[in-house]
Amino acid sequence: MNNRSREWWTGFLFILPATILFIAFVYYPFAQSIYYSFTEWDSIRPAKYIGLDNYAYLLEDSKMLRAGMNTLLVTVFGLAIQNPLSLLLAVLLNRSFRTRAFLRTAFYLPVIVSLVVTSIVWGSILQYDGLLNGLLERIGLADWSRDWLGNSHTVFPTIIAMTQWQGLGYCAVIYLAGLQSIPQELYEAAKIDGANAGRRFMHVTLPLLMPAITIVVFLTIIGGLKLFDIPYVMTGGGPGSSSYTITLAIYNAAFRENTYGYAIAAGIVLMIFIMIVTLIQLRITRRREVEI
Amino acid sequence: MDKLLSKRRDRVGLASEVLLILVALLFLYPILYLVLASFKEPGQFYDPLAWPNSFYLGHYEKAFAKVNVMSGFMNTFAISAGSIALIIIVSSMAGYIIARMPHKFFQLLFYFFISGMVIPLQTGMIPIFKMGVALHLIDTRSFMILLYTAGAIPMATFMYAGFTKSVPREIEESASLDGYGRFRTYWLIIFPLLLPATGTLIMLNIYGIWNDLFGPLLYLKDPAKMTLMAQVVQFKANNQSIDYGPIFALCVMATLPLIILFFFTQKYMMRGLIMGSVKG
């Protein structure tokens, strides 16, 4: 064996474990999924080929459509509210003052506590005889109190609010990192040119923050579209199907109703959707990125 | 005039700082409430502003009586530690080769890993479940470790490849003059130099693995193998008339190790997020 091919084989051995694991647990199951999505399959009896029926049924399934609506709502709210809010927070936290370390920790803590735990705490706070209603009563707003998670009108807005609380710190930290990578000289130069704070933000901060914005928007979209733990623990999707998300609906279709082929088809549609949305997003935000 | 302006700015700064602190306390409140309520006697449990009367441990005793907390902790710890060790080993080897060997095959593999990132877990879960059954790996901690590792490979390989490129080639060349082979060079020289990347990866992965519910929910049915998060959810589901006291106690115990870790590694964690997100 000559030297070069021996080199290649050594490299191959180095990369083999990662490749095997990745094929076994990502690509192989995925390939199987594509096949099963065209079948009627309960995982016990053999799969029966039914063509595109699963995909067609997706459009008639009111539970799935509700789940899709909710999933979109979480994502849109994340982009419209959490995103600018976390940028504002990062700008405020970027100045130097005494309590900065405490504040950063405080805003970040909800991120490291598991969604299971935060869902349980919020579940207890929001239940009918829970803390929030008690507080409202005490300050004379008893009319406002309601069964936040048991009411089909309030349950999903409440869950959205919770996701905002949970993810704000994470986005803020990424923005903070982006802010810190902007050289101070640029601000000084802009100041000398007579740019006020607003213009400095629009013409220096925002353009140079584009890479961070790309990442945060990307993470918000992926996180929103895959939301599972919070509704699973807090409401189980109820009441009715009012707090269903796509991933929860897929989980239930597979493991509660044993309609595996259908669940997989929904998963594949979700994947294609995620791919299209993130590709469009990356195209839009990447184009605005500038180099220093 | 200047003095006046800076005085005004000071006041604005102070006002915004106070406001931020207030918001932060509101923000922290649910977590504070969780910890405090877990020590409150049942009578004051729902009193939102009350400090615990006494250091009441009844909820913890109940939680310990009904849930095998030690086993949950050991399972969670074993799965997290095992996954992270395996992620580090397989990804650093792959990343090193991708950074150092220009051969097309290895570069293609890189894109192969990256493209796999868009496949959501949910599409593969049923075939993975079936595979676990066929290989007699379902309900084992090893299966969870393999799964988490596979999921983390793209990101970790990406980072290790980036870091390897910043290590000067001369170091390896002199090692090879000393008669070191590829493997010894990697293990004794390169791997130690990649320590910052390794630290970052630990920080980026440990919270996700420790806190994960989806994996254990699907692939660990045996109560003896359950992780802390699965135990919490199971315990809540079994409590028909929800008695939040012991559930809160269990939540505190499941979260505490991560909070302690966070306080010790906060600085590296932030740095890790910066490297992992903005520059990765």
Automatic annotation (TrEMBL), chain A:
Record-linked Pfam families: BPD_transp_1 (PF00528)
Subcellular location: Cell membrane
CC terms in the record's Gene Ontology section: plasma membrane
UniProt entry tagged with the keyword Heme: no
UniProt main location, coarse: membrane
Membrane protein topology class: Multi-pass membrane protein
An annotated GO BP: transmembrane transport
UniProt keyword annotations, A-Z: Cell membrane, Membrane, Transmembrane, Transmembrane helix, Transport
Matches recorded under InterPro entries: ABC_transporter_permease, MetI-like, MetI-like_sf
Protein name in UniProt: Sugar ABC transporter permease
From TrEMBL, chain B:
CDD domains: TM_PBP2
Annotated coiled-coil segments of the chain: none
Keyword Methyltransferase: no
Broad class of the protein's primary localization: membrane
UniProt keyword annotation of Nucleotide-binding present: no
TM regions (residue ranges): 12-36, 77-99, 108-129, 141-164, 185-210, 244-265
Gene3D superfamilies in alphabetical order: MetI-like
A biological process from GO: transmembrane transport
Protein topology in the membrane: Multi-pass membrane protein
Protein name according to UniProt: Carbohydrate ABC transporter permease
